[in-house]
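Design job #97: recover the sequence.
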């Protein structure tokens, strides 16, 4: 298992939401009304007992506060940083209906979990008594880490396989660095793995280095946490010009290593989702003078979070609305994106314009991994996603799935919840298996 490079381009970013100090955390914790029927709990996919962990911060019992968080969500440290709390727990805080600022739940969660990580001698959970059963988990992202940790608490042996040399999945390779950097995700993965009994085999691509048949023979159950595939292209003229990249692929490059943006004066990001917003904010933060988001829709209909886009605009990012790329233009390298102007029905008006660009990132979605999983007979797909039931079981007996490959691309907290629920279902299956 490799460690991420210390000389990474992402290192220039500071936290967009700085951590609380003790005084700030205590002040904010004492503001909580400790609602008996707390809507913030219902808004959390992992159902963390939020009033309980905040009360424990208020009484300075931070270790117990952290355990309350980890009991529901073992990835509580990263979720404290990357969750869109504005649309989840904080967005449902009762203070929102009282013309008062909502409780900053994410910052309080970060305070408690960061203190827990600093205490290297404390381990809140232990592995259960060995059952003699083994589970193979494909992909080393949040869903698999949450699943493996829960399985170890239940006594099952686990092996995680990932084609990359580093662990953590998109938490390591894709999260915006102003939210969380790759080394912090790596530290979380290592902390989760310290429960013991979880083997990790990196540099292993299932279907190439190890067959599905071998996995089936080597384990009593399988969990698919493979995420999503490469960036979608647009199949437009000039797309092969130097300077045109997939957004997820490019973000991974500067999160794990170094990129050279010297000479890039204008950048364009195509798309209107959360990846597009992350990309424009990252390019602006890396000093690109002009950053433009090109989107075929309008501002109030974009799929990306409104609060994230608001900050992007404050950071100097511009947008070209109702613009449909037609071609990437340039002589030897990309120099601009030629776009058609669209009407309210997203039909071309006949007007065209060129947005200057020395760098173009395509953030129009990622391919589903149906091809990778095609060798696993009996697993069904719907719109490219693995079909699962309420317990995350696939249509093939003994195989479960969670995270982006099953939900199509939701939040880290959703992956953590799906991984844990899958582990509990796998446990019931293995305990009943002969």
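Job complete. Output follows.
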């Amino acid at each position: 298992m490799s460690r991420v490079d210390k000389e990474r381009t992402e290192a220039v970013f500071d936290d967009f939401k700085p951590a609380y100090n003790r005084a700030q955390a205590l002040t904010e914790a004492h503001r909580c009304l400790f609602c008996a029927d707390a809507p913030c709990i219902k808004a959390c996919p992992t159902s963390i007992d939020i009033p309980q962990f905040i009360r424990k911060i208020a009484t300075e019992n931070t270790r117990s506060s952290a355990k309350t968080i980890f009991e529901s969500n073992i990835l509580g440290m990263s979720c404290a940083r990357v969750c869109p709390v504005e649309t989840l727990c904080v967005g449902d805080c009762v203070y929102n209906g009282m013309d008062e600022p909502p409780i900053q739940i994410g910052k309080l969660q970060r305070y408690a979990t960061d203190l827990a990580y600093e205490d290297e001698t404390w381990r809140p959970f232990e592995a259960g008594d060995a059952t003699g059963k083994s589970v193979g988990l494909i992909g080393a992202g949040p869903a698999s880490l949450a699943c493996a940790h829960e399985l170890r608490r239940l006594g099952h042996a686990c092996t995680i396989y990932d084609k990359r040399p580093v662990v953590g999945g998109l938490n390591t390779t894709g999260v915006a660095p102003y939210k969380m950097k790759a080394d912090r995700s790596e530290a979380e993965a290592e902390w989760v793995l310290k429960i013991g009994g979880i083997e990790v085999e990196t540099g292993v691509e299932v279907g190439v280095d190890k067959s599905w048949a071998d996995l089936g023979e080597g384990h009593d159950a399988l969990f698919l946490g493979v995420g999503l595939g490469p960036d979608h292209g647009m199949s437009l003229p000039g797309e092969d010009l130097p300077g045109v990249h997939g957004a997820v692929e490019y973000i991974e490059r500067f999160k794990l290593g170094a990129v050279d943006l010297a000479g890039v004066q204008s950048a364009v990001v195509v798309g209107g989702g959360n990846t597009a917003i992350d990309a424009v904010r990252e390019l602006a933060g890396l000093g690109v003078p002009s950053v433009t988001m090109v989107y075929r829709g309008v501002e109030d209909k974009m799929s990306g979070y409104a609060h994230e886009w608001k900050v992007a605009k404050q950071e100097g990012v511009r947008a070209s609305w109702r613009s449909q790329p037609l071609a990437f233009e340039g002589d030897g390298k990309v120099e601009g994106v030629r776009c058609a102007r669209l009407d309210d029905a997203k039909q071309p008006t006949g007007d065209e314009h060129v947005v200057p660009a020395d760098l173009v990132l395509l953030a129009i979605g990622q391919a589903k991994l149906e091809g990778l999983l095609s060798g696993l007979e009996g697993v069904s797909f719907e719109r490219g996603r693995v079909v699962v039931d309420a317990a995350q079981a696939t249509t093939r007996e003994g195989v479960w799935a969670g995270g982006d490959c099953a939900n199509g691309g939701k939040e880290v907290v959703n992956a953590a919840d799906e991984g844990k629920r899958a582990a509990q279902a796998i446990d019931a299956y293995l305990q009943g298996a002969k």
